[in-house]
Design brief:
This protein is of the alpha/beta class. It contains seven helices and six strands. It is globular, with a radius of gyration of 19 Å. Bound molecules: 3-methylbut-3-enyl trihydrogen diphosphate (2 copies) and magnesium ion (MG). The site of one 3-methylbut-3-enyl trihydrogen diphosphate has 11 residues, from strand 2.
């Protein structure tokens, strides 16, 4: 008799599609290592990661996920070599141009979370145009975090609240969580139920610090470009096996 049970890696995950999380958030990490393992430049990993984003976002819409939030570029990612940053920005532009072209067919509603003012004008315009076109679509909303940082988001919300208080519109002693949430990029979006991080790192890296307060976490060694629908099924099955208590019993 075996002393412990090992899950065969290929085992099909059992997902109950009638009990899916409303909101999934993904830290799309591991592009660089994916490329390195294949002897390719890191940018090839980012291209593969962007392609996989298309696959997973389309699939999430298909199975009826209401919100998908993905981490594409953090406020800390500017520390990378200039050539890598500009390659990522170039890929984003290419991706958005294609997305705009496919919009009528895909009908995915896209929004951007983050300080877009630091991006070049062309990319800012593309983000705005994408949001503009997709505003009229119903169904799955995909939020792309671009130059996003959880601390930066909270700091700008704190500034906005301070301004409201100084203007006499709000009473500092009576501020509520809802007042703060109104100033987050995610205003109006329910908190993520499930946060997924591929690539083997077990950390948040400044992602959705406020919103993930009661999220379930799923970590896997699989690198983002290899994170397939089947891997998503594994994450969903793990999520469905958890007991969410929110501090209760
Ligand atoms: C995630 O992949 C993409 C961005 C952070 C822009 P990485 O580029 O961080 O890949 P690894 O972690 O180096 O493998
Ligand atoms: C987090 O990944 C940011 C994105 C995936 C966009 P990083 O690769 O930047 O995170 P660290 O540096 O490993 O914490
Ligand atoms: Mg990384």
């Amino acid at each position: 008799m075996a002393l412990f049970k090992r899950e065969p890696a290929q085992r099909q995950a059992q997902v109950d599609f009638s009990r899916l999380p409303r909101h999934i958030a993904i830290i799309m990490d591991g592009n660089g290592r994916w490329a390195k393992r294949r002897g390719l430049p890191r940018t090839a990993g980012h291209a593969a990661g962007a392609e996989n984003f298309r696959t997973i976002a389309t699939y999430c819409k298909e199975i009826g996920i209401e919100y998908l939030t993905v981490y594409a570029f953090s406020t800390e990612n500017w520390k990378r070599p200039a050539e890598e940053v500009s390659a990522i920005m170039g890929l984003l532009k290419k991706y958005l141009l294609e997305a705009i072209g496919r919009m009528e067919r895909d009908r995915v509603k896209m929004r951007f979370f983050g300080d877009l003012t630091a991006l070049d004008q062309e990319l800012q315009d593309l983000c705005r145009r994408t949001e503009e076109i997709s505003r009229r679509y119903e169904g799955c909303q995909v939020d792309i975090c671009l130059n996003y940082g959880g601390r930066d988001e909270l700091l700008q919300a704190a500034r906005a609240l301070a301004r409201d208080c100084v203007a006499g519109e709000l009473d500092p002693g009576a501020l509520t969580e809802a007042d703060l949430e109104r100033h987050l990029f995610s205003a109006g979006v329910p908190d993520p139920d499930l946060v997924i991080r591929p690539s083997g790192e077990i950390r948040l890296s400044n992602f959705l610090l406020w919103q993930a307060a009661y999220a379930e976490f799923y970590f896997t060694d699989v690198l983002w470009p290899d994170f397939s629908k089947e891997e998503l099924h594994r994450a969903l099955a793990a999520y469905q096996s958890r007991s969410r208590r929110f501090g209760g019993v």
